[in-house]
Write a structure and sequence with these properties.
113 residues; alpha+beta; Glutaredoxin; 6 helices
């Protein structure tokens, strides 16, 4: 199981704490130092089945500075995955990936299972 997070994000740290409390062994991956590749993101977008919007950190400073709210609507999955792969701070976090599932953002009910 892979846990992709930003080490200075309090929500990510809260999610990581929940995983550790349950004794789960996760591979940690810093979203800035090891930004997911375009190929990984495309795979996750298709695996998730909810389009590209859930992958964008819409509350992030960079998202707002780049005025992506309007631009994302017209992006293809390829374009979105390329943009996200170029800057990890644009990606919603944390991301929890196992063999069959991907969970984007902190969802309390998921992390307490």
């Amino acid at each position: 199981m892979q846990f992709i997070y930003y080490p200075r994000c309090s929500t990510c740290l809260k999610a990581l704490k929940k995983l550790k409390e349950q004794g789960l062994d996760v591979e940690l991956r810093d979203i800035v130092q090891q930004t997911p590749s375009q190929e990984e993101l495309l795979h996750w977008i298709q695996q998730n089945g909810q389009g590209i919007k859930p992958f964008f950190n819409t509350s992030g400073k960079l998202y707002r500075e780049m005025n992506l709210k309007e631009k994302v609507k017209d992006m293809s999955e390829q374009e979105a995955a390329l943009l996200l792969s170029q800057n990890g701070m644009l990606i919603k976090r944390p991301i929890l990936v196992d063999d069959q599932n991907i969970y984007i953002g902190y969802q309390k009910e998921i992390y307490e299972k």
